[in-house]
Structure formats: structure tokens, C-alpha cells
Design a protein that fits this description.
175 residues; 39% helix; elongated
Length: 175
């Protein structure tokens, strides 16, 4: 037998294998870290859902603003026109998201006017952001965060049930 040939590992009398000494510590480390890894995994999943569905809300605001910019007699409307609501609802419905509130702001009469439809607590962006040199329409769509993602981290103190997300889009009035 050559000196390089492998010999079976033998322990001296009374000694334990190195694996046996760490077996309990590895199990304890696994038990302690698995909940942390699960919470991190849930946070990643929830954040991904929010970011993905937030893009759908932004697109719904753009679709609603485009529809409002082509709506005749918008300056005489007392509430949000149904064609704008249908456009926003269809866009959000394609992602199984229900809207909470739609706000239209325009400066067609020379002063800023606001129309809103739907429940929910949502403030439109600052009025100074709406240009005054021409006629513009801004649509803001507000959706509760619980519509965008399941509340996986609620039991751990990261509750999103009272939060809303809003997106606005501004288009030039075409008519």
C-alpha cells in the first residue's frame, strides 16, 4: 500500500467526531435564523408586489389623464366624467386592482377647479405644479396599499392597511 493511499478515519478511544460536536449548535442556529429568513422573504415578496402594481396605478393615472384631456365640456362637469372613471377602472381592473379615489384638476376656466369621485382619503399634489400658461388637466388616482399587496408583514408590526398610494398625470387639454 502506498503512503498516499487513503486510510479510514479512526478516532482514538473516548473521542467524538468533529461533526457530532457541532450537531446541536447547527440545529439551534437553524431554529433561530429560519424566522428571520422567512420575514425577509415575505418582505421581498410584498415589496415586489407593491412595486409591480404601483406601475399599474401610474399607467391608470396616465390613461385617465389622456381620456380627460379629450373630454368635451370638462369645465362644465360637476363630477368626474364617466368616461374617465371607466378608463381608470378598466386599466386597474386588468390587474385586479380596485380604485379608491379619482381626482381631476383643470384650469379650463382660468382658475383651478377640482373634481373628485370615490371614497378614500387622498390629497392631490400641490396646485403650483399645474402649469397656468395653457389649459391642462391632471388626474390623480389613489389606491390603498392593501389593494396592491397582501399584508404579509402586518403581524410583525409593519402594517400597510392604513396607507394609500397615489399617482398623478398631467396632459394638455386638447379640445
Amino acid at each position: 500500500m502506498s503512503p498516499i493511499a487513503k486510510r479510514p478515519f479512526r478516532l482514538a478511544a473516548g473521542r467524538r467526531s468533529p461533526r457530532g460536536q457541532r450537531g446541536g449548535a447547527v440545529t439551534l442556529e437553524l431554529i433561530l435564523t429560519v424566522p428571520i429568513w422567512l420575514i425577509l422573504l415575505w418582505a421581498i415578496v410584498e415589496w415586489g408586489q407593491i412595486l409591480s402594481n404601483e406601475q399599474h396605478v401610474a399607467l391608470a393615472a396616465r390613461v385617465g389623464a389622456e381620456e380627460a384631456s379629450q373630454t368635451a365640456n370638462l369645465d362644465a362637469a360637476a363630477s368626474v366624467p364617466t368616461n374617465v372613471l371607466i378608463a381608470v377602472t378598466q386599466q386597474l381592473g386588468s390587474s385586479n386592482i380596485s380604485w379608491s379615489k379619482v381626482i381631476i384638476e383643470h384650469n379650463l376656466n382660468g382658475s383651478l377647479e377640482e373634481l373628485s369621485e370615490g371614497p378614500g382619503d387622498c390629497d392631490p399634489p400641490s396646485t403650483s405644479l399645474l402649469p397656468t400658461n395653457r389649459e391642462y388637466v391632471r388626474v390623480t388616482v389613489c389606491v390603498p396599499l392593501t389593494e396592491l399587496a397582501c399584508n404579509l408583514l402586518g403581524p410583525f408590526g409593519f402594517d400597510i392597511s392604513g396607507c394609500t398610494i397615489q399617482h398623478s398625470a398631467t396632459f394638455r387639454y386638447e379640445l
